Structure formats: C-alpha cells, structure tokens
Amino acid sequence: MSDHVVLLDSYPSMFGMRVRIALAEKGIEYEYKEEDLSNKSPLLLKMNPVHKKIPVLIHNGRPVCESLVEVQYIDEVWKDKSPLLPSHPYQRAQARFWADYVDKKIYDAGRKIWTTKGEEQETAKNELIDCLKVLEGELGDKPYFGGESFGFVDIALLPFSTWFYAYETLGNFSIEAECPKLIAWVNRCKEKETVSKSLSDPHKVYEFVLGLRKKLGI
Amino acid sequence: MGEEVKLIGARGSPFNCRVEIALKLKGVEYEFIEEDLANKSPLLLKYNPVHKKIPVLLHNGKPIAESLVILEYVDQTWEGASILPQHPYERAMARFWAKFIDDKCMSALWNACWSKGKEQEKAIEEANELLKLLENELKDKKFFGGDNIGLVDIVADFIAYWVGAIQEVTGAEVLTKEKFPKLFEWAREFINCSIVKEKLPPRDHLTGFFRIKLEAPDTLKYNPQVR
Fold first, then answer.
1. A132-157, pLDDT tens digit by residue?
2. What's the half-sphere exposure (Cβ side, CA atoms, 13 Å) at B110?
3. What span, in angstroms and rounded, lies between the C-alpha atoms of B227 and B218?
C-alpha cells in the first residue's frame, strides 16, 4: 500500500521545520503545501478545526496536528528506519521532558524579543539566554541531545536556530557569545543533509519577522 | 526483581492525581511523599531542578517530571491496562487531546470558575468553546478512551472533579448538565470508576481548600506549582 503524505506548513515556522526534519530523516516522500496564514485555506480549516494552525500532517487523508505529536506519529508509523526517540522508556521520558521544555520556554521568550522594546525586551533576552543555557547544560559534551544519535530533542530545538538571527538583530545581542556550545551543536546538526534541506533561511525568516512587526504595528 | 517506586506529590493536585490513577491502573506499589508546596523540600529541588514542581516520579532513584511525560513512562514501563491506544493514529489523537486539555483548558476553566463580572462572562464564553470541542470529541463513547479510561480521561481529571468542587464554592456555572450533558455524564462515570474514586482527594478537602482561596483573592491567578 502506498502512503500519501501531505504537509500543510509555512516556510518560517519552526514548528513546521520539526516535521520537515522528521519526514526527511525517515526518507518519506510527501507533498508540501505552503499556507498563507493571513488567508487560511479551506483544507487547513478542515484538517485542524480546533487550532486552525500549521503544521498539519495529513497521512492517507487523516490529519495529525501539533508538531511534536506529528514527529512522534512519524516515528511510530515509519518505525523501521532512523528512530527519532530512544527505545529505553527512561531515555524516552527524558527526551519528552526536554522537548516539552523547549515548547514551554523558547517560543514565548523569543517572541517577546521581537515584539517588545526597552526593559521588556531586555527581560526577554535574559530569559531566552537563561533557557538556552539550561539546554546547553543538558547537552553537555554529547554530540546531540540524544547522545550519539540525532533525535527528538534535537528536532524540537533546532528550528529555533533559524530565528536566532532575527532575535539577535532585533534584540542587539549575540546568542553565540552566550551559548557557544549550543551554536556548535546547531552547526553540527546542519552537516546532516536532512537538516540543512529542512531548515529555513535565517535571512528570509528575518524578513518575515520584519513584515509581521509592520503588520502588528511594532 | 526489587523495584522502588516513589511519587513526590501533593494530594490536592489534579496533576498529581493523574499519576496516582495511572500507577493504580498498572497495579504498581509506590511510596507517596507529600510535598509542602509553600516550603519545597530539598528532595523536590534535587529531583526536579528545572521546574521545581510536582508530581515527580522516582523509579529506582531516577526521576521523571511533568505529568504527561510520567503517564507515557508508566504506560511503557509496566504491564496491565493500557493508558495509550495501540494504533499510532489513535495514539496521536490521544496525545493531541491531552495537550489541548493541558495547554488550553486548565487555565481557561480555572479563570472561568474564579473570575467575576464582565471578566467572568468572557472567561465562561472561552471555556464554553473549549468544553464544546471536548463534548464533540467524546461523541457517544463512555470515555475518551472508549470503553475504558485512557490517557485523555486521566488528563481531564481536573474537568471531571476539580471544576465541580470549585463551582460549589464560587457558584460559577461552567460545566453543567444543561450546557454539556455528555461531558457531565462522562465526569460522573469517570469519578465513579473504582480506580479513580480511590485516588481522588476527598471532596470536602477540596472545597475546604477552595473556600480558603476565596478569602485570599491574590492567590487566585492560575499559577500551578504543579505540572
């Protein structure tokens, strides 16, 4: 039986990038559909009526929503190649914990950097750096968060690196100066073709953020 | 094989209760360590340094934090009734709804129950939208998990039990039989399950606790010291 896989996505979305990486890691062929988030398609509204958000993975007509849910789904369905989560329950739990940490902390801190100014922005910058340092600590001297192999937590966090240029430029600071090991990890991951072809161009992300700021009147 | 399972928690917390229900479902014996959230113990700070919240499961000395993470861990580690479905698509659906409850419903329902005046009107409207989605998802099933309780039912424990207790204290009408008959019935079935009943904190403890909160409005902001 041949699989039909569609990904509803938006180029700058770090959540979409997670799913792109997972699909690439598994070597899955799929149809990529770029959504205009200011004019959401009937397909998106039908496939994600609850949140009306991307990414949405549509597998043989059935939608899966929420990026980390989608990554786990991909790992469970296409289980014979490139496991994304560890097999041992304790390590799986640790992977889920850290992916959840990324979800809870990084997006909001980053968003505050490009939507605020002055003291509020300073606080957001410090918050982001603090969280990235915690992650850097968790990475330690391992090549990837998963240890020797690239996996779930790497996939959860990596796409945010495409937004670092935007954060740094708008916040006037350097993430590499504060978290050199993390940037080294980003560069190590980008050596994988599955990653480099899935991540969006930071300069294009920056242009997108500028456009958003204008729209939001910032 | 000798196995040591401990749960650092707080009996009034719905997040804690989720884990206790899961452990009971799997027939796991464990030592419960009640945490005083106003005065966090060195044990908690050691085993959950990142968030400093309960519940934390300790399995042979190794900690797992975040209730949803713990539930998946318990499901994978011990035999017995399944918490997550077997099929990947159904698992994805269960995870989706569990996340929906955690990300959206918990704070919205809390606010709907505790706010007043115009703010409450708005909060109740928001809660109505979310509860409607859950009611639609339930359809004609007895539980979100089907014939037996599963991940989503366990994660929705706050909705099944805590909301009713808060409503009793504040008079708010957020989840009622008239508004959401299916969900109301589901809540009744859920809290009457023998496994669940055993693990729920006594109702009068909860209402007592919430009555105290009513007198101290500055503690009402949704800021769970528990996950």
1. 999 999 999 999 999 999 999 999 99
2. 17
3. 21
Which chain A residues are within 8 Å of B72, Cβ to Cβ? 92-93, 96
Q: Is A89 helix (H, G, I), strand (E, B) or coil?
A: helix
> Which amino acid does the sequence have at B129?
E
Peptide bond preceding A143: is omega within 30 degrees of 0, i.e. cis? no
Closest CB to B95 among A69, A77, A92: A69
- What angle (nearest 5°) sits at the alpha carbon of residue A144, between those of residues A138 and A148? 120
**CB-based contacts of B116: which residues, under 8 Å, 6+ apart?**
none
Q: Which residues of A23-35 are buried (b: 16+ CB within 10 A; e: fewer)?
A: bbbbebebeebeb
SS3 category, A66: coil
Smallest CA–CA separation between B76 and chain A, in Å? 6
Which residues of chain A have a CB within 8 Å of the CB of B133?
A: 50
**Exposure class string for A100-124: b at 16+ Cβ within 10 A, else e:** bbbbbbbeebbebbbbbeeeebeeb
Closest-CA residue of A relative to B136 is A50
Residue B79 pLDDT grade (very low, low, confident, very high; cuts 50, 70, 90): very high
B154: Cβ contacts below 8 Å, ≥ 6 apart: B18, B21, B22, B71, B83
Residue B221 is predicted with a pLDDT of 67
Contact state of B99 with A69 under an 8 Å Cβ cutoff: yes
For residue B187, what are the contacts with CB-CB under 8 A and spacing of at least 6?
A: B159, B160, B161, B164, B175
Smallest CA–CA distance from A97 into chain B, residue: B69
Residues of chain B positioned with their CB less than 8 A from the CB of A101: 50
Averaged pLDDT of chain A: 97
Closest-CA distance of chain A to residue B185, Å: 23
pLDDT in tens, B124-183: 999 999 999 999 999 999 999 999 999 999 999 999 999 999 999 999 999 999 999 999
**Residue in B closest to A50 by C-alpha:** B133
C-alpha distance from residue A164 to each of A43, A188, A192 (Å): 31, 16, 19
Q: State the Cα–Cα distance between residues B103 and B97, nearest whole angstrom.
A: 10
Chain B positions in Cβ-Cβ contact with residue A70 (cut-off 8 Å): 92
Residues of chain B in contact with residue A89, where contact means CB-CB under 8 angstroms, are 73, 76-77
Q: What's the pTM?
A: 0.96
Is B96 close to A66, i.e. CB distance below 8 A? Answer: yes
